[in-house]
Amino acid sequence: MNKVLKTFRCKVTKKIYRAGSVYDGERAEELQALGFVEVHEPEPEWPKHIGGGKYELSNGETVKGKQAAFTAQAELDETVNEDGESQDADTPGE
Questions:
Q1: Sorting pLDDT into bands at 50, 70 and 90, what band is 82?
Q2: Alpha-carbon distance 5 to 19, whole Å?
Q3: With contact defined as beta carbons under 8 Å apart, do 23 and 37 qualify?
């Protein structure tokens, strides 16, 4: 979701975007650099509730129970280093 910070008119569509509204166009990065739009990249929320008390983890695994799912996802998140690459649990980080 891209939040409009300052009112402007899009040079492509001629549509007026008012401060506080949502910008849904393709020029978000350009407008952010000019100070008109604040760009937010939504991160997927894990675990995802899939119904029946079951949750899907970021690795595709299914877990039953909310607390168990959040615990398992926290463990998965710990095994991912800052580069986004997973590391083996038995191998210490370098």
A1: very low
A2: 5
A3: yes
